[in-house]
Amino acid sequence: MSLRYIMVSLVIVLDLVFKGEGAECQCNGCVIADRNQHVDNNTLIDHQVPHCTSNELYKYVLDDGATGAFAGRVLVRKDAQKTISQERNQNLVTTKKARMYSNRCSKSMPMT
Predict the structure, then answer these.
(1) Cα(94)–Cα(62) distance, rounded to whole angstroms?
(2) Which of 8, 14, 102, 106 sees the fewest Cβ atoms within 10 Å?
(3) Cβ proximity of 22 and 39 under 8 Å
């Protein structure tokens, strides 16, 4: 049995905005790619209010000439006190030709 399919490129963009106090989200992603496939996940979690929780976990398994990319950004606004956020990206690259690019960014907004 084979689960192979033809796909050249897939880009997934996820933007979440917390506007209700006490909101929670769990964002999980799993990618298995081979040949010349490219899978790109871009996330932005914007904490605008206090007491919110966000957790992200994205995992990639890349084979042959596959390419993966993960760019995650967490934004904590000045009013979002007591925010809890965790972001993880774990990858397995099985060949010398496969490539994985990760960029994580967390930012607290300055108080004005």
Answers:
(1) 6
(2) 8
(3) no
| Distance of alpha carbon 17 from alpha carbon 6, whole angstroms | 34
**End-to-end Cα distance, the chain:** 59
Site of tokens 């990760």: 102
Strands (E), the chain: 9-18, 24-33, 38-47, 53-62, 67-76, 84-93, 99-108
Cβ-contact 85, 54 below 8 angstroms: yes
